[in-house]
Amino acid sequence: MAFTDQCEYDVRFEQGEHGLAALAAGGVRQFVIIDVLSFSTCVDVAAERGAHVFPYLWKDARAESFAREHSALLAGGPGSPYALTVASLSTIPAGTRLVLPSPNGSTLSFTAAEHGQVITGCLRNRSAVAAFLNQRTGPVAVIASGERWRPDGSLRPCLEDTLGAGAIIAALSGTRSPEAEGAVAMFEACKERLADTLARCSSGRELLEKGHPRNVEMAAELDASRCVPLLQDGCFRSVASPPV
Question: pTM to 2 decimals?
Answer without folding.
Answer: 0.96
